[in-house]
Amino acid sequence: MGYMDKAAPGKNPYAGAHGGGVRGDRTPIFEGRFRRMFEGLPAANFESDALTELGWAMTSDPERVGKDPKNADFMLPSATPETEADGEENTLISAGYTYFGQFMDHDITFDPVSVLQGRNDPNALVDFRTPALDLDCLYGRGPADQPYMYEPDGKSFRLGRVLTQGFNNTPVARDLPRFAGNPPDDNRPAPALIGDKRNDENVIVSQLQGLFLRFHNRVVRDNKDISFEDAQRIVRWHYQWAIVHDFLPTIVGQATMTKVWPQWPPTGAGGTLPTLKFYRVTEGEAYIPIEFSAAAYRFGHSMVRPIYRLNTQLVGGKDPKHATPEEIDPQHIDGRFFIFANVQERGLNGFDSFPSQWAIDWSLFFNIDAQVPRPASNACNRHTRSTHHWSIRWASCRSSPPIRSARAAIWPYQRCSPLKRTRPVRAISRSGTFGAATAWDCPAAKRSPQPWTRFR
Q: What are the angstrom distances between the C-alpha of 436 and each of 116, 131, 291, 442, 454?
């Protein structure tokens, strides 16, 4: 089969919708609720055609260099050369934050039942995730309830096959544990055996999930007599620290951080808490605001790049070891992979095994050698054009762009006819089903906080 460990022809039945089905019985301990934060404001009401038109207006054309000489129905995809700055990229935010943000989203929200047809009642929607950054997407319901995710010691995670960077056969990472076909080589998809299937929806977030599994195992290995609960607590603390000290200031900027959290960064257990104007809950009644999950946090979709370099050892194209002259120039796609593609060996599609040579070099996705970032302003969260040039090593995927070419990001080898629904179209259509207020109404809400919302 060449460098592909398996080829999965046809549609992957495990991919499906982003949410998927409800996994097992749940108790309130493992559940939260979605709710409108501004419950008294009138719901936005737009025609679906208008939302679709807006979504298409936010979608730029994919980069192409003409028709495929072997198949006139397909356009040849291309990408900005790695030696050049791309005007649509945000060079101030490393590409890895996109997928760390996706990982966080999967940690705090999971709505498996809402649909795009009709209007959903947010108060009736169960969030099958606790509204806390507690890594339940990693741990699931724990070794007692889901022992198949864990080693016999009841403390360590099971891991998958060894991953390498290119064809040098030096192990650098591990894949997620996966379901095997029966027999193992029957070419059926091999979805991951993890606490949240969504963390296998693309190769990047899949390997980020694997990174957390290995970190937990390292904590267990370095502390011989540690309990599962104590190891879990240590991993959670590191994860939460990274969010507060790195992710948030990188995304919103220091000015916003200090405005919301005057004594940020916090020091010790006695530090002050953030100052929140509108989100109010009593202990045990935390919820996920629809305004956040279905609207504000959707900005992450605009950070998805259409193409990434996983490591510097991969140099090929459709032939994994050798790129054609066209793939090198004018396509500029040698050694890089599209985030989604209908060509299995050229896309970072998920819910299946991928070539073992695709281990990620995380220094291409995060500025690992840098100190914790302290952005000087909110500019890092604006997807502005920049003429800053990174080195060849960083230019491939260090930066996150705005909504670039959602059509290219989803299906770069698309036919000449456009896709019916792009990611911006889907996101806007979905957010319109929850009855959230428009931004125009919110300033009035700030001036008159009652009775438009009720704080608990």
A: 14, 19, 6, 10, 15
322 DSSP β-pair partners: 319
Does 127 map to a domain?
Answer: yes
Contacts (Cβ under 8 Å, ≥6 apart) of 294 = 430, 431, 434, 436
pLDDT tens by residue, 358-376: 999 999 999 987 555 444 3
Q: What are the pLDDT digits (tens) for 235-255? A: 999 999 999 999 999 999 989
Count of domains for the chain: 1
- Are 282 and 55 in contact, with CB atoms under 8 Å apart? no
Strands 64-68 and 32-35: unpaired
In which element (H, E) is residue 229 found?
Answer: helix 228-242
Instruction: Domain of residue 90: give its range.
Output: 31-447
- Whether the CB-CB separation of 372 and 323 falls below 8 Å is answered with no
Q: What type of residue sits at position 382?
A: R
Closest CA to 4 of 331, 347, 305: 347
Task: Dump strand ranges (E) for 168-302.
Answer: 171-174, 288-289
Looking at the domain assignment, is residue 453 inside a domain? Answer: no
pLDDT band at 201 (very low <50, low <70, confident <90, very high): very high
**Residue 401 confidence (pLDDT) above 70:** no
Q: How far apart, in whole angstroms, are the C-alpha atoms of residue 9 and residue 187?
A: 8
Could you give the CA distance from residue 430 to residue 294 in angstroms, rounded to a whole number? Answer: 7
Asked whether residue 298 is assigned to any structural domain, the reply reads yes
Say which amino acid occupies 293.
S
Give the closest residue to 423 by CA, choosing from 404, 444, 437. Answer: 404
148 within some domain: yes
pTM for the predicted model, two decimal places: 0.80
